[in-house]
Amino acid sequence: MVVSDHLLGALDYPLPLPPSKHNQGEMRNLPGDYEKHHFEIDKAEDEEVNDNPIEEVRLTVPITDDPTQAVLTIRTWVLGLAACILLSFVNQFFQYRSNQLSIGSVTIQILVLPVGKFMAAKLPKKQVSTPFTKWSFSLNPGPFNMKEHVLITIFANCGAGGVYAVYIITITKAFYHRGLHPVAAMLLAQTTQLLGYGWAGMFRTILVDSPYMWWPATLVQVSLFRHVLLRSLYIFLPLALHEKEKRKKGERTRLQFFAIVFVASFAYYIVPGHFFPSLSALSFVCWIWKRSITAQQIGAGLNGLGIGSFGLDWATVASFLGTPLAYPFFAIANTMVGFILVMYVLVPIAYWSNFREAKRFPIFTSHTFDEDGQIFNITRVLNEKTFDLNLVEYENYSKLYLSIFFAFLYGLSFASLTATLTHVALFDGKNIIKMWKKTTTAVKDEFSDVHTRIMKKNYAVVPQWWFTVILVISLALSLLAVEGFDRQLQLPWWGLLLACFIALVFTLPVGVVQATTNMQIGLNVITELVIGYMYPGKPLANVAFKTYGYISMTQALSFLGDFKMGHYMKIPPKSMFIVQLVGTVVSSTVYFGTAWWLLSSVENICNPDLLPDGSPWTCPGSDVFYNASIIWGVVGPLRMFTDKGVYPEQNWWFLVGFLAPVPMWFLQRKFPEKKWIKLIHVPLILSASSAMPSAKTVHYWSWAFVGFIFNYIIYRRYKRWWAKHTYILSAALDAGVAFLGVILYFTLQSKDIYGPAWWGADVSDHCPLAKCPTAPGIKVKGCPVL
Q1: What's residue 43's pLDDT?
Q2: Rounded distance between C-alpha atoms, residue 475 and residue 465, angstroms
Q3: Any residues with CB less than 8 A from the CB of 112 and at least 6 apart, and which?
Q4: What's the CA gap between 106 and 559, in Å, rounded?
Q5: Which residue numbers in the chain have pLDDT < 50?
Q6: Where do transmembrane segments lie in this chain (predicted)?
Q7: Do the beta carbons of residue 621 and residue 170 sit within 8 Å?
Q8: pLDDT value at position 248?
Q9: 18-42 b/e with 16+ CB inside 10 Å = b?
Q10: Cβ–Cβ under 8 Å, residues 284 and 308
Q11: Exposed (0-12), middle (13-18) or buried (19+): which is 486, by Cβ within 10 Å?
């Protein structure tokens, strides 16, 4: 599994493979018997020395190669760069909106095929010379082939991945209202994405060349390209991307189906996107009990428990949690079990028992508060010149308080981290050790795997100095970003080097776990804690340290995962490296440019109180990131999660998470015949609410309902239809919403035209009292005093 990027900025907990901005639609439906939640080394591997020792790999990846196929063609560059730029722009554009739709690379993987084939059929085979060089290339080097398609998808992966550092830029300019030099911001965006290439170069021999480091998630995209029908309860991918499809009488081809759904999605989104934004969250309970705070807390889909709330907008369904059509039903069920336990058991009990003065604050919000129930006045405790904590003023003002939901969410983040460690150790520990031993042995034997032999025979490896140069340049530019420009990022040089050291140390062990179990242990909590204790009172230093320490490791593993896919697909390593490097630089530039443009051009962006009615520029993810910077950076863990703060008991969640997987491990060993026990995944349950509070309860219920319909009812009753259309349907719905959303902005919203002024024009669920406290005597604007 990978660390989720759902909770945009604050709480990227370790999750068992939900689609994220990095992997949307790609990392579910694993090959083999996934319900076991772990792999088994094939007992017959000794008989398969000429292939691969992992059965799932043998079932998915052919042992053939055609080294004569053109790879870095004009089609690869044109379509790949276009896909990278398009996804980077669209995903960053929607990141600032109320519903943060994220388009994954699978959409491009599907869309680009007919375009590539069209170019192969229509473009002339003319040779074009490059001015002032001896290089030339053909406009049409032959049929559009699978290797081109893979590289274009790698370009798209770069654009779909997101740039975490943009959140730092956003909170600095839109929330703290401080200046940030554009060059420093650009260097931050670029270097945090590129540093991981250095770590990847150090460990690629072990994590890519070894047949025992098999990267299960990559097999899903390999199966899409190769059209292998995998024998799994949750996998059914007969999407023949490189197989000609003939339309049967009375049926439609997949391309026709995509076109129909795309047009319908494009046309419908004008309603929730312009004329009736309130369709995104319909909370009928609030409309019935208009004057009851408790009723609205229970019924509000955006700021409450969301009982009976739902949305009629695809962006509501897929914006924060990813498309539900991409999840196996067991993952949906585990997620909803965890969500229900948190939202309908833990939070209500704690709130209505007034635990830690919970009634003084809203029941569901990411905002921070003072002891009087008011929004924490951060300007009062920050030194204006030095931009750090004024401890005297802080002690004279108030301790920092959170909503009861947000407080528990941090506790669950601690539990998720330790639960993942325990889960991996119990369920996969023996196999990880066994595979590691075989890997170290295989290194001495120069690998016996057929895929590695083919790659070494047919293609030159990427020289180590390529990775070293990228690392040295990235590190130098990182030092310039943090130490130059009047140290606007606050992080000292030693903090940067410590963050890089943490990322370097953890890349190999975390990579081994991910390459064998599909689970990635996140460093976000560790990095926040370390810098929060070592360098408190510095909000930007905290988030910059977390980004350099956490994201550079994540980028390294993303790079290695893509490299493994290229390994399976027999892509020349140098071509893979070039595409990934160019894609990373281009996507980082577009993400930064889009963010800087919107932050500079949309008046009052990220400030819902000052935005016009119907404006979608509420920045829910950045709002969470901002409040996290206050909690971890300004105040710090010493004054939050010890006796000096309000929430010292939160540290017990580390122990809860550490012990939580043990009962399920025992039950699986005790009752191996009970298959339903194997479907219970404790880390996924504990981290189920990780997309919140950026995602609201209405998003969870809408997502789960659609996922239940498609991946349980339709999957079981109409499996043939599901197999043929589900992923196409998801891609078309995403694309329709994305394209019309961008068009609406450029044609109307950029001119402050947000649709007709009426009740349904609000980007809300009309539950204003859900934001109110219920403690007697607390005065909040817009709320009755009890």
Answers
A1: 42
A2: 15
A3: 79, 83, 149, 152, 153, 156
A4: 17
A5: 1-49, 227-243
A6: 74-94, 101-120, 150-171, 183-200, 212-234, 255-271, 329-352, 400-426, 465-482, 494-515, 577-599, 650-667, 698-715, 727-748
A7: no
A8: 65
A9: bbbbbbbbbbbbbbbbbbebbbebb
A10: yes
A11: exposed
CA end-to-end span of the chain, whole Å? 47
Q: Measure the CA–CA gap between 627 and 612, rounded to whole angstroms.
A: 23
The whole-number pLDDT of residue 127 equals: 80
Say how far apart CA 96 and CA 544 lie, in whole Å: 20
Q: How far apart are CA 579 and CA 592, in angstroms?
A: 20
pLDDT, position 30: 30
What is the token pair recorded at 135? 């290089």
pLDDT at position 5, please? 34
Structure tokens, 609: 């109180």
Total number of residues shown for the chain: 786
Residue whose pair of structure tokens reads 């609000």 in the numeric block: 762
Distance CA 714, CA 708 (A): 9
Return the HEC string of 680-701: CCHHHHHCHHHHCCCCCHHHHH
E strand or H helix that includes residue 198: helix 182-204
The Cα–Cα gap between 5 and 50 comes to: 39
- Paired with 129 in beta bridges are 136
pLDDT for 440: 67
Cα separation, 2 vs 703, in Å, equals: 20
Give the Cα separation of 751 and 438 in Å (integer): 62
Report how far residue 70's alpha carbon sits from residue 591's, in angstroms, rounded to the nearest whole number. Answer: 30
pLDDT at position 245: 54
What pLDDT is recorded for position 318?
84
Structure tokens at 687: 């981290």
Q: Are 317 and 703 in contact (CB under 8 A)?
A: yes
Residues 297-320 as b/e (b if ≥16 CB within 10 A, e otherwise) read bbbbbbbbbbbbbbbbbbbbbbbb
CA separation, residue 33 to residues 12, 48, 235, 678 (Å): 27, 20, 10, 11
If residue 421 lies in a helix (H) or strand (E), which one and from where to where?
Answer: helix 404-423
Token representation of residue 153: 């998808």
Reported as type and span, the H/E element at residue 401 is strand 401-402
- The residue to which tokens 């504990």 are assigned: 686
- Looking at the DSSP bridge assignments, the partners of residue 402 are 368
Collapse the DSSP code of 370 into the 3-class scheme (helix H, G, I; strand E, B; otherwise coil) and give the result.
Answer: coil
Peptide bond into 693 cis (omega under 30): yes
Q: What is the pLDDT of residues 647-703, one digit of tens each?
A: 888 889 899 989 998 998 888 888 888 878 878 888 888 888 888 888 899 999 999
Query: Three-state DSSP class for 382?
Result: strand
Pair of tokens at residue 431: 């196999």
Q: Annotate 205-220 with DSSP letters as a single string.
A: IIIII-TT---TTHHH
693 closest CA partner among 748, 759, 633, 621: 621
The amino acid that residue 490 corresponds to is Q
Instruction: Give the integer Cα–Cα distance in Å for 459 and 570.
Output: 9
Dump the DSSP string for 478-530.
Answer: HHHHHHSGGGTT---HHHHHHHHHHHHHHHHHHHHHHHHHS-----HHHHHHH
Q: CA 676, CA 286: separation in Å to the nearest integer?
A: 38
CA angle 505, 509, 512 (to 5 degrees): 145
**Rounded-to-integer distance, Cα 434 and Cα 528, Å:** 33
Residue 32 to residue 39: CA distance in whole angstroms: 8
Angle of the 182-204 helix axis to the 464-483 helix axis, nearest 10: 150
The reported pLDDT for the residue numbered 506 is: 84
Q: Helix 105-122 vs helix 146-160: angle between axes, to the nearest 10 degrees?
A: 140
Which candidate, 8, 10, 1, 16, places its Cα nearest to that of 688? 16
Q: 115 with 79: CB under 8 angstroms?
A: yes
pLDDT in tens, 710-724: 888 988 888 888 877
